[in-house]
Design a protein that fits this description.
The protein contains 16 helices and 22 strands. With 601 residues, the protein is of the alpha/beta class. The protein binds 1-deoxynojirimycin.
Length: 601
Amino acid sequence: MPSVQSNTRSGTSSPVQKTLKTWWKESTVYQVYPASFKDSNGDGIGDLQGVISKLDYIKSLGANIVWLSPIFCSPQVDMGYDVSDYYNIYRPYGTVEDLDQLTAAIHQRGMKLVLDLVVNHTSDQHRWFQEARSSRANPYRDWYIWKKPRYGEDGKPQPPNNWKSYFGGSAWEYDEPSGEYYLHLFAKEQPDLNWENPYVRAAVHDVIRYWLQKGADGFRMNAINLISKDQSFPNAEVTDPYSPWQNGTKHFACGPRLHEYLQGIGKILKQYDAFSVGEMPEVYDLNEMLRSIGADRSELSMVFHFESVTLDHGHGSKFTSRKWDLHELKSIVSRWQTFMHENNGWNTLYLENHDQPRAVSRFGSDEPEHRASSAKMLATFLGLQSGTLFIYQGQELGMPNVPKHWGIEQYRDIETLNHWNEITASDPLNTPLHEACLLEYRLKSRDNARTPMQWDDSPNAGFSSVRPWLPVHDDYQDLNAVNQVNDKDSVYHYWVNMLRLRKAYPDILVYGSFELLCPEHPDLFIYTRTAPSGRALIVTNFRPREVPWSWPIAEVAYVASRSGEVVLSNAGRTSHTLSNTITLQPFEAFVWLSGTETSRL
Ligand code: NOJ
């Protein structure tokens, strides 16, 4: 404990505990990306039996909710985010009986199951869309969004407005036989459902009820804030003068009827005390987010915002280069943390998922000498904030982005490949541009997160007995789950310890208030979590070098009159090695717990 005494007040005032307690706030979610988790039947693709075989591993880590990315029937244009049948399982993943078995196995272990609900759009192979497409008079026609063309001077049909698709090109696809365009905010094989139609809402409600009755404990709701569109479908403002297609988000993110639709869903969820997390891209207004998750709203439990994970997206496209900045990260985190605490909302905590690159490569360092320490530092930074924590498979091992030698032939992701095709078609001889794009893919392509899980050092990393659908990372012989489970000093065990700490002190680490310290510090992210029962000080060094640091006076004042201890460290730091001024090791992280007994650990 620091020796400086101070006659200032011996602590900040205890925050008012406004946050209501529920089971899902105290939970930790482990996201499984089925195709890349564990292949049990030797076809190179992960499956549900594979997930069952690894449930004990997930439980030992300390997670208690398993979120499965989409498992329903799908032509896999977008890895299952294009559903062609909401009531059956994609064959290579297994059957409904396998899912029943998995649900039971999860529940036997006292854990919960969360499914991915993809209902902003379906696959173009879904029966509803096949019907809708078959004729303008078909009763399903109005289940999707159809518009008449505009006509250019050449008399050729043009899309009804200038919205661009998230996966490149126009967001409208012309259907020649019926002479109309349909809307697809993502790939053309993912037509948007028309939520204005009550039959669509009823059909989605049926899907939700069906899986809750079968034992699911909740849903992650894909792109859910895009379901209500401005019905005048206006042109988007031109922000990219070099493209005919513009970002129309303003006209369909959190649209006019979103909350009415979410309340319709929320009513069903409430009957089952179900968990829900809504994916909400492109929203920066916290009050708008609060309308979806406020304790009095009966809509969703929590939302994923995108502010932290778009910090390195350049103008116009995620593949435009931009360096992320620690000050910006601080201000985003601190804004969300304090706002939700003060307004009885709730945060999600994530740095990785199937759409994001690996955190260690993005926010830490994947150089051999720093990979493990920066992965542990990021676990500390993320995991002790206020909110429900989401861990993406392999994050607990510190898995990095794809190897540097990957060429475009290795990538499978539709977003990456569409971008590449667009660039190489429009500028075929511009080799420097192509190289710059490849560099950006190694930093931000979604495939960075999708390489198979590295279970052991056997061929194919113990993921499969055959060559997997996406190459295994070269580093699997060294970096794998077996090695880390057997090594008490590994990234895996650090996560276990961090989660144990979080669980031991829910009053402080789940429900406590958040305060950012040293906001101007250029290298360190430091914060406190405080409850009437005590306080945790979390210190993290985001740099690959030593950084000197002095305890902030306010903190000294708080701890001076209380006992405390270092309860977590990635650099062997103990209470004895703490003095008023210390030198933090590269990517060092530690947690000082004070004002409470530490025997709960
Ligand atoms: C968000 C999902 O996370 C992503 O993987 C998918 O491509 C889009 N929504 C479209 O469904």
